[in-house]
């Protein structure tokens, strides 16, 4: 029985590869010497005597119909039942990051396009990262929202941020560095 093996493909390759596995059929007295794998536009890939294969260099976000046939000294078996499977979409580019509200101890950051919330919001999440003094960045927010308030900051201080979008294909590239500065503390309340 031919089937897809999803956990065999690293996330970075999921948009261009599909892993498949099958059981060796009865050879009728002559050992199986290999298999023909048909996929795409009648492309055939021949493999040795294995029962799994990673199909590479496929198109992202594309449905493939895959079937296999065994080869031995007597000839070719009929093709197996076909399976229908799909490559993952490409990881998304990062959105533009803005500061919506500047405070003396916080920054409210926003990103993305609010009109794209609908259908895609279930499939997309974002990583917001903040830089430390040594230049390393760490994640301070992961989730589907398009805003995040960063609290407990120092007044009139520059902070560096990066953002990254994640979807079913994995993590997209990190953005460039965005720099935002907190404001000075306002005067105290009059008595």
Write structural notes for this entry:
This protein has 191 residues and is mainly β. It has 2 domains: 84 residues, Sandwich (Immunoglobulin-like); 85 residues, Immunoglobulins (Immunoglobulin-like, Sandwich), CATH 2.60.40.10. The protein is 0% helix and 43% strand. Strands 3, 4, 6, 7 and 8 form a 5-stranded antiparallel sheet that branches. Strands 11, 12, 14, 15 and 16 form a 5-stranded antiparallel sheet that branches. Strand 11 and strand 12 form a beta hairpin. It is rod-shaped, with a radius of gyration of 26 Å. The termini are far apart. About 3% of the residues have low confidence.
User: Average pLDDT across residues?
Assistant: 91
End-to-end separation in angstroms reads 81 Å
β-strand number: 16
Major sheet description: 5 strands, antiparallel
Order of helices and strands: EEEEEEEEEEEEEEEE
**Form type:** rod-shaped
In brief:
The chain is mainly β and 191 residues long. 0% of the residues lie in helices and 43% in strands.
């Amino acid at each position: 029985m031919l089937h897809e093996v999803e956990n065999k493909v690293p996330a970075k390759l999921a948009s261009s590869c599909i892993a498949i596995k099958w059981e060796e059929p009865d050879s009728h007295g002559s050992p199986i010497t290999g298999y023909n794998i048909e996929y795409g536009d009648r492309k055939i890939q021949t493999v040795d005597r294995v029962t799994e294969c990673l199909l590479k260099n496929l198109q992202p976000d594309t449905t493939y119909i895959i079937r296999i046939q065994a080869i031995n000294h007597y000839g070719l078996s009929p093709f197996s039942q076909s399976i229908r499977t799909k490559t993952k979409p490409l990881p998304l580019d990062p959105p533009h990051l803005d500061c919506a509200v500047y405070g003396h101890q916080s920054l409210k950051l926003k990103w993305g396009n609010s009109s794209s919330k609908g259908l895609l919001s279930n499939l997309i999440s974002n990583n917001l990262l903040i830089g430390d003094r040594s230049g390393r960045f760490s994640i301070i927010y992961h989730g589907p929202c398009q805003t995040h308030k960063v609290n407990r900051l120092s007044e009139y201080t520059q902070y560096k941020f990066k953002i990254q979008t994640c979807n079913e294909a994995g993590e997209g590239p990190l953005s460039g560095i965005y720099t935002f500065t907190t404001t000075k503390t306002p005067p105290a309340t009059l008595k």
